[in-house]
Amino acid sequence: MGFPKSFYRWRPHPWHGLEVGEDQPRIVNAYIEMTPFDAVQYEVDKTTGYLRVDRPQLTSSMPPTLYGFIPQTYCADRVKALSPKSKQGDGDPLDICVITERPINRGEVILKARVIGGIQMIDNGEADDKIIAILDNDPFWSHANDLEDMPAPLLERLRHYFETYKLVPGHLSDVTIESIYGREQAYTVIKASMEDYTEEYG
């Protein structure tokens, strides 16, 4: 008797072993690394796929949403081409911020996210876009399909977080927010990151 197709004998790597999503780029899978309750920066370890502690947050900023990445994406030349002021892609999977009405207080979860926009961020010269999405089956946010459906204060909270989350007191930040864009541009960035992944990893 063989294992069912959906059964993983071993834990899949969340970056390489999970899929982007059946209805991408409109709805994508998101692997969550951080929650709004985390005062420590967590990142997936690229070798093992387990979550590791990157650093304590140096400021009082907390993530305003769930924060993670889209599997089987990669920020390289195609993503960089969409961010003209960048020198290169950041060489990481494409980041995603997922908005929910009910608090989710644990990381290392997978969810389906409906893409509504994104933030064009440059970190130390590298393209480091942040996709903005909604938990797809959240009835509270069922009306939200594009950036214009979001409250402006929430978008400003996201902007402020990413402008300050790597800030070292007494030093200038290397992070700039170039723009906040809508759904169609977010689709374009996701497709570019998928093509970058295919070129890098096959």
Folded structure, characterized:
- With 202 residues, this protein is an alpha+beta fold.
- Helices cover 18% and strands 30% of the residues.
- It has one domain: Inorganic Pyrophosphatase (Alpha-Beta Complex).
- It has helices at residues 77-81, 152-164, 183-201; strands at 27-34, 40-44, 51-56, 66-69, 88-89, 95-99, 109-123, 126-127, 130-135, 175-182.
- The strands form two sheets. The chain has a five-stranded mixed barrel. A two-stranded antiparallel sheet has the order 2-3.
- The longest helix is centred in the C-terminal third of the chain and has 19 residues, at 183-201.
- The radius of gyration is 16 Å and the shape is globular.
In short:
The chain has helices at residues 77-81, 152-164, 183-201, and strands spanning 27-34, 40-44, 51-56, 66-69, 88-89, 95-99, 109-123, 126-127, 130-135, 175-182. It is α+β, with helices and mostly antiparallel strands and 202 residues long. The longest helix is centred in the last third of the chain and has 19 residues, at 183-201.
Could you give the topology of this structure?
Elements: E1 27-34, E2 40-44, E3 51-56, E4 66-69, H1 77-81, E5 88-89, E6 95-99, E7 109-123, E8 126-127, E9 130-135, H2 152-164, E10 175-182, H3 183-201
Parallel strand pairs: 5-8, 6-9
Antiparallel strand pairs: 1-4, 1-7, 2-3, 4-6, 7-8, 7-9, 7-10
The CATH first-level class comes to: Alpha Beta
Coarse shape: globular
Write down the secondary-structure element order: EEEEHEEEEEHEH
The largest beta-sheet arranges its strands as 1-4-6-9-7
Ends: how far apart? 31 Å
Give the CATH architecture.
Answer: Alpha-Beta Complex
Let me know the CATH homologous superfamily: Inorganic pyrophosphatase
The fold-level CATH name is: Inorganic Pyrophosphatase
Task: State the domain count.
Answer: 1
Tally the helices: what do you get?
A: 3
Radius of gyration: 16 Å
